[in-house]
Amino acid sequence: MVSLKLSDLGARYGASLTMEGVSTPVLSGGELTAVIGPNAAGKSTLFKRIAGLLKGPGLVELQGVSQPPKEAIRYMPQDTHANAVLTVYESVLLAAKQGAGWRVRDGELARIDRILQALQIGELAFRNLGALSGGQRQLVAIAQALVRKPEVLLMDEPTSALDLYRQVEVLGFMQEFARRNGTLVLIALHDLNHALRFCQNTMVISGGRLAAAGPSEEVITQDLLRQIYRIDARIEQCSRGERHIIIDRAAA
């Protein structure tokens, strides 16, 4: 089973150290880990450092993978840039074949079909990317990431352009994808209720440092909401066992 551990990790933009001292417990495959924190806290910087796109001190310790780290780790940025003249199917096929030669096998085509259907964008297969909405392009970007069979997947706000219904559908799909394939998925999220519902673990980034890490229900607390997000809220458990954040409007 794949596992990831960060030890005293930092990141540099040029000569400036913008993130430092990030150390985590071992994160295991088959689970979703939420990465939360205020805007500009360093979530994207963390993902880029793990993916090797930024340099800096510390160690990214990856165990149990069957590929070299550059192949095992996939980063899906928040802003995806795609060739607007390609169709959805062509763009996902191109992602699948990167660095693997151009011979297309039936199994690869079947995999693309399954992913498009699972994300409910099969009907968009032969539409040009330039004709899609922002939410539809975001779903295509998810398909492009999944088709490469990542062992560690870093998703930077992958549901930000989706409506609430599709957010729930996609996060539920990613939860099942991780469990079925043993993939370790780190997802930057702003909706903390989604983190509580779908993610077994949560990391909190604030000011370029790790403020907390561990099981989501232990990390996302009233104290955390007050200290990191500066809001007064309570966390209630519903009859199905799920926990929800209720903001105290009177206190706000």
Explain the overall architecture.
This protein has 252 residues and is of the alpha/beta class. It has a single domain, classed as Rossmann fold. Helix content is 33%, strand content 26%. It has nine helices and 13 strands. The chain has a six-stranded mixed β-sheet with strand order 7-8-9-5-10-11, sandwiched between helices. A hairpin with a 2-residue loop joins β10 (201-206) and β11 (209-215). α3 runs parallel beside α5. The N and C termini lie far apart (44 Å). The mean pLDDT is 90.
Sequence-ordered SSE layout with sheet pairings:
Blueprint: E1 3-7, E2 9-13, E3 16-22, E4 27-28, E5 32-36, H1 43-50, E6 59-63, H2 69-72, E7 73-76, H3 88-97, H4 106-118, H5 134-146, E8 152-156, H6 164-181, E9 184-188, H7 192-198, E10 201-206, E11 209-215, H8 216-219, H9 222-228, E12 233-237, E13 243-247
Parallel strand pairs: 5-9, 5-10, 7-8, 8-9
Antiparallel strand pairs: 1-4, 1-6, 2-3, 10-11, 12-13
Helix pairs in contact: 3-5
Assign the CATH architecture: 3-Layer(aba) Sandwich
Mean pLDDT score: 90
Classified by CATH, the class is Alpha Beta
What is the CATH superfamily label?
A: P-loop containing nucleotide triphosphate hydrolases
Structural class given helices, strands, pairing? alpha/beta
| H/I helix tally | 9
What is the gyration radius calculated from CA atoms? 19 Å
The 3D shape can be described as globular
Q: What would the CATH topology be? A: Rossmann fold
Indicate the proportion of strand residues.
Answer: 25-35%
Strand order of the largest sheet: 7-8-9-5-10-11
Helix content: 25-40%
For the record, the count of structural domains works out to 1
